[in-house]
C-alpha cells in the first residue's frame, strides 16, 4: 500500500529527483537563514550594533545566489563545455591570488580569503565548481576517445595536486580534504580499478598524517577528539568541541526553543558558521537535527539520482562530483560539531553563514538542476505545466 501511495510512488516518478532537489534546497536555505539569524544575533549586536547585521548580509548573498542558480540551470551543454575549458586556469588564478602580498587575507590562521573592501571572498569555494567542470569534461573526452579507465588518475592527479598544494600553502586542511573527496569520487565513478583506488587512498592517508604531524595545532585538534573535556584540553583545543557537545546535549528531544541557545553567548566561537549545527541541536533538539539530516539526505540522493539518469558523460561526472563535494562538507561539519571528527573549519552547505559558499553551492545546484531539466521526462513534464 505504501509503495502504491507513499514515498515509493513519488520516487518512481521520472520527475521525482528534480522536484526533490528543488524542495530540499528551498527547505535547507530557509532553515539556514533562520538559524544564521539566531546563531549570529548576539555577535552581530556586539560587533555591528544591531542583531540583523550578519543575517542581512546573508540575505544579500542569497539574492545574488538565486539568480546565479537560475542562469546556471538554463545554460546549454555546449556552453558548459566551453566554460569547462578554462576551469583549471580559473581555479589556478584564484588560488594564486591568495599568495600575492596585500591581496590574500588570513582568517583564523588560514590564508584563504581575498579582501574586496566591503566583503571578503573565499576563492577555493568558486574553484571547487570550476575544477569539477574541468575534470568532468576531461573524463568525458577520455571516455569518448576510448582510453583506459586507469588513465583517469594520470589525467586528474597533477591538476588536483597543484590546487590542493596551493590550498595547503594557505594552511586550509579542511578545504583540501573536500577537494580530495571530490577527486576520489571522480576516480570511483570513472571506473578505475580497486588497486589504483587503494593506492590513492593510501597516498592520501600518508599525506594527511604528514600535514597533521608537522603542525602542532592540527595534532592537538586530532588528539582532542578523544576527550575534549579533559583538564589539559578543555580550555585549549577542546573548548569548541566541548561547548558544541554541551549545546547539542542541552537541546534534548525538542530543544530549548528558537533563539534561546546559551552557547552562542560567547562560549561557542563561530556559532553561525562552523558550529551552526550545534545551535540547531540546542534550539530545535534532536528532532531538528534529524530533520536537517533528512533534508541533506534528500538533497544528495536527488543529485546522485540525476547523475544516474543522464545520458551525457560530462553531466554525469559533474553531478557525482557535486554530490561528493556536498557529502564531504556535511560529514566534516557535523563530525566536527559532534566531536566525531577534528575541527577542520568547513561550512554546512546552504545553512552556515558565508557568501562565497552559498553562491558556489547554488551555482553547482543550478548546474545539476539544468542536467535534470534536459531529461526528456522532465522536459515533457515542464512543457505540460506551461500549457496548463
Strand fraction equals under 5%
Give the structural class: mainly alpha
Number of strands: 3
Query: Uncertain segments of ≥5 residues (pLDDT<50)?
Result: none
The shape, in one word, is globular
**Average predicted local confidence, pLDDT:** 88
Number of domains: 1
The biggest sheet, with number of strands, parallel, antiparallel or mixed sense and barrel status, is: 3 strands, antiparallel
Helix content: over 70%
Q: C-alpha Rg, in Å? A: 21 Å
Spatial order of the strands forming the largest sheet: 1-2-3
SSE arrangement, N to C: HHHHHHEEEHHHHHHHHHHH
Distance between the termini: 31 Å
What is the number of helices? 17
Report what the structure shows:
The chain crosses the membrane at residues 20-45, 51-71, 83-101, 152-170, 176-200, 207-226, 284-308, 320-344, 350-372. Keywords: Cell cycle, Cell division, Cell membrane, Cell shape, Cell wall biogenesis/degradation, Glycosyltransferase, Membrane, Peptidoglycan synthesis, Transferase, Transmembrane, Transmembrane helix. This is peptidoglycan glycosyltransferase. It comes from freshwater metagenome. It is an enzyme of class 2 (transferase). This protein has 388 residues and is mainly alpha-helical. It has one domain (14-83, 127-387). Helix content is 72%, strand content 3%. The chain has 17 helices and three strands. It has helices at residues 2-5, 7-11, 16-48, 53-73, 77-85, 87-97, 123-144, 151-169, 173-190, 194-213, 216-224, 231-234, 239-251, 276-309, 313-337, 355-373, 376-387; strands at residues 104-107, 110-115, 120-121. The protein has a three-stranded antiparallel beta sheet with strand order 1-2-3, with no helix packed on it. Helix 8 packs antiparallel against helix 9 and helix 15 runs antiparallel to helix 16 (355-373). The two termini are 31 Å apart. The model has no long low-confidence stretch (mean pLDDT 88).
Amino acid at each position: 500500500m505504501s509503495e502504491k501511495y507513499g514515498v515509493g510512488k513519488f520516487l518512481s516518478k521520472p520527475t521525482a529527483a528534480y522536484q526533490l532537489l528543488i524542495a530540499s534546497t528551498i527547505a535547507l536555505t530557509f532553515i539556514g537563514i533562520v538559524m544564521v539569524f539566531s546563531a549570529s544575533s548576539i555577535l552581530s549586536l556586539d560587533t555591528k550594533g544591531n542583531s540583523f547585521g550578519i543575517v542581512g548580509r546573508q540575505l544579500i548573498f542569497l539574492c545574488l545566489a538565486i539568480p546565479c542558480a537560475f542562469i546556471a540551470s538554463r545554460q546549454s551543454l555546449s556552453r558548459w563545455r566551453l566554460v569547462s575549458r578554462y576551469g583549471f586556469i580559473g581555479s589556478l588564478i584564484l588560488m594564486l591570488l591568495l599568495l600575492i602580498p596585500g591581496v590574500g587575507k588570513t582568517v583564523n590562521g588560514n590564508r584563504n580569503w581575498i579582501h574586496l573592501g566591503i566583503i571578503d571572498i573565499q576563492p577555493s569555494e568558486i574553484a571547487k565548481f570550476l575544477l569539477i567542470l574541468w575534470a568532468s569534461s576531461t573524463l568525458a573526452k577520455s571516455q569518448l576517445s576510448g582510453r583506459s579507465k586507469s588513465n583517469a588518475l594520470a589525467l586528474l592527479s597533477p591538476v588536483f595536486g597543484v590546487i590542493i598544494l596551493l590550498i595547503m600553502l594557505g594552511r586550509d586542511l579542511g578545504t583540501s580534504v573536500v577537494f580530495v573527496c571530490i577527486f576520489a569520487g571522480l576516480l570511483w565513478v570513472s571506473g578505475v580499478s580497486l588497486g589504483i583506488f587503494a593506492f590513492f587512498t593510501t597516498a592520501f592517508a600518508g599525506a594527511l598524517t604528514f600535514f597533521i604531524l608537522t603542525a602542532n595545532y592540527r595534532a592537538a585538534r586530532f588528539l582532542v577528539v578523544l576527550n575534549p573535556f579533559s583538564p589539559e584540553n578543555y580550555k585549549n583545543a577542546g573548548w569548541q568541541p566541548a561547548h558544541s557537545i554541551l549545546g547539542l546535549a542541552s537541546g534534548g528531544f525538542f530543544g530549548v526553543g528558537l533563539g534561546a541557545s546559551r552557547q552562542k553567548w560567547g562560549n561557542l566561537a563561530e556559532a553561525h558558521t562552523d558550529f551552526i549545527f550545534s545551535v540547531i541541536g540546542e534550539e530545535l533538539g534532536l528532532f531538528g537535527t534529524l530533520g536537517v539530516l533528512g533534508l541533506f539526505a534528500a538533497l544528495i540522493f536527488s543529485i546522485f539520482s540525476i547523475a544516474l539518469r543522464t545520458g551525457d558523460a560530462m553531466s554525469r561526472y559533474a553531478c557525482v562530483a557535486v554530490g561528493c563535494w556536498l557529502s564531504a562538507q556535511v560529514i566534516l561539519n557535523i563530525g566536527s560539531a559532534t566531536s566525531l571528527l577534528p575541527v577542520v573549519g568547513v561550512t554546512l552547505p546552504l545553512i552556515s553563514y558565508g557568501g562565497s559558499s552559498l553562491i558556489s553551492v547554488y551555482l553547482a545546484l543550478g548546474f545539476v538542476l539544468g542536467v535534470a531539466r534536459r531529461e526528456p521526462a522532465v522536459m515533457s513534464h515542464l512543457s505540460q505545466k506551461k500549457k496548463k
